[in-house]
Design brief:
Length: about 525
């Protein structure tokens, strides 16, 4: 080799070492959307490759290995879409932070190109005419709809559906992933995608978030459109994002906000929604914050209590003032009755409205749904089977009265404003930034345990956020002695998502409590090279 050749080799070696020193390899599970975008921009990762990595995890863990049974339908065009978005990124740059990012959807979100079944054999094969409003927003932002995932059938009862079967918790296969967004919780925890969408009527985002050890948000009622989502009870229903970390959740939330003329509730968000919640994230947000602790939801499970007490101490160490509080006894006693008085009759009326939008071969009323389930009484060859716990609930819903019944109107017009006023009064009198509590007062239950009633059991705090319409952010807090995840809830007042996300981000960065489930370890070749910032 001549002198010029030696010099060229040395320069190349120096450049290679410089590039290597300015990048780091991180596990796919640990990568935030910011990391993924940095890798996209550096050319060390493509969206096509990311989708392939996600599909590899689905193939390894959903029907093989631990057989988690989270995925209902895999998008056959996901790789093709990713390839097109890679080309678009090169030609025009990214549309948003979600450009080329895979997303999984609970199977009650309408998708024009894949079935939307609500987990039920009653809607098997139903392909709606249009995307749900937020699904279109995700696609417009460059998100890739990777899969539709399992759920509690028609978003109620246990983490089981007649069409999708039983989903399993990736931290412990004998445990429930909780419902009704259980498939989304499993998929995010197991690394099937960085982002997922759930829905929440009485805890259905929050239960699976804590049971699977991930981040989730039940937004303020009206922040996100419900247009194109199979309804359960529109007075309480909301969609919401689920993710591995607060940053990713904030990135997803902003691209979906906006007033939708087809959903009157979103009018409440006008002038209050944010289009990029990442900008308000502050690692020091807990310093000077005043945090209330809802002590009514302790004392059920000593391991959960210990984890939450440790979380409270972490907040104090970060500079927060932590004060104990109790909810009014009348509110705790009445919340279940208030919830059911709205939830049952609304489903009867509102499911008929949704059924009118799909094909003629499907039932058009709850009575027709009941009649068809009565004729489905054995397991099919493909595994579809009866769902007695949900189908028996159909009859209670059908017998619950109409939307003109005094039992409904009295709670709607007087009960819900009363609860909202009481919670607002606690915030104002105590000068609180958030109220925290164990998202679930007990560790994830065994799959064989009887499901909680709609809205949760007597010790569950879930319904308060639904009765008020207020936002509730869940962040992983730690693990029980038998390595089951525990989440902590940050409840805020209406449209305080930016504050809650910042508080949750500050807590997350102080504790780093999330872990990849033991049943879904990293696969070979999953690490991603990310430039050092």
């Amino acid at each position: 080799m001549n002198a010029w050749g030696r010099m060229t080799f040395v320069v190349a070696l120096l450049l290679w070492n410089l590039c290597a020193a300015s990048a780091k390899d991180i596990d796919l599970d640990a990568a935030t959307i910011a990391d993924l975008n940095a890798a996209f921009n550096a050319g060390t990762l493509t969206s096509e490759k990311l989708v392939q990595l996600c599909i590899a995890r689905i193939q390894a863990y959903d029907r093989e290995g631990p057989s988690l049974h989270a995925v209902m339908t895999l998008n056959p065009k996901a790789i093709e879409t990713a390839r097109a978005l890679d080309a678009e990124r090169k030609a025009k740059g990214p549309r948003s932070p979600l450009h080329g990012i895979p997303v999984v959807l609970k199977d009650n979100y309408d998708t024009f190109d894949m079935p939307t079944t609500g987990g039920s054999v009653l809607l098997e094969g139903s392909i709606p005419p249009h995307d749900a409003f937020v699904v279109k927003k995700l696609r417009d932002a460059g998100g890739i709809i990777l899969a539709k995932v399992n759920m509690s059938e028609f978003a109620s009862a246990g983490a089981y559906s007649s069409l999708g079967g039983q989903s399993r918790n990736p931290h412990d296969l004998s445990r429930s992933p909780a419902g009704s967004s259980g498939g989304t919780g499993v998929a995010i925890a197991a690394g099937y995608a960085p982002l997922g969408m759930g829905t929440d009527t009485g805890g259905s985002i929050r239960g699976p978030s804590t049971a699977n050890g991930i981040v989730g948000l039940k937004p303020t009622h009206g922040l996100l459109s419900r247009n194109g989502i199979i309804p359960l009870a529109l007075s309480f229903d909301t969609g919401g994002p689920m993710a591995r970390n607060v940053y990713d959740l904030a990135a997803a939330l902003g691209v979906m906000t906006g007033v939708d003329p087809a959903d009157a509730a979103t009018k409440k968000s006008e002038g209050k929604f944010v289009t990029d919640y990442r900008k308000g994230l502050n690692v020091g947000a807990l310093k000077g914050a005043r945090i209330g602790v809802a002590r009514d939801f302790f004392g059920v499970d000593p391991d959960v209590d210990w984890v939450i007490e440790a979380a409270l101490e972490a907040m104090r160490q970060a500079g927060a003032t932590v004060v104990d509080l109790r909810y009014p006894k009348w509110l705790l006693d009445a919340r279940g009755e208030f919830y059911n008085a709205i939830r049952y009759p609304e489903f009867t009326a509102q499911i008929a409205g949704y059924l009118a939008t799909i094909g003629p071969d499907y039932p058009k009323s709850l009575d027709q749904m009941i009649e068809r389930t009565n004729r489905f009484n054995a397991t099919r060859a493909d595994g579809a089977r009866p769902n007695p716990s949900r189908w028996s609930l159909f009859k209670r819903e059908a017998d619950s009265g109409t939307l003109n019944d005094y039992r409904y109107t009295s709670v709607r017009d007087y009960g819900l404003p009363l609860v909202r006023s009481a919670i607002e009064g606690i915030f104002e009198s105590q000068k609180l930034d958030a109220i925290v509590y164990p998202t679930s007062p007990r560790r994830p239950v065994l799959i064989t345990a009887a499901p909680d009633p709609p809205g949760g059991g007597p010790s569950s705090p879930a319904t308060i956020a639904n009765l008020t319409g207020f936002p509730d952010l869940i962040v992983p807090a730690g693990f029980t002695g038998d390595t089951l995840p525990v989440g902590i809830s940050f409840l805020g007042t209406a449209f305080s998502e930016q504050k809650l996300l910042s508080l949750g981000y500050s807590f997350e960065q102080a504790t780093h409590a999330r872990r990849l489930p033991v049943q879904t370890p990293p696969l070979k070749g999953e690490s991603i090279s990310v430039p050092l910032r």
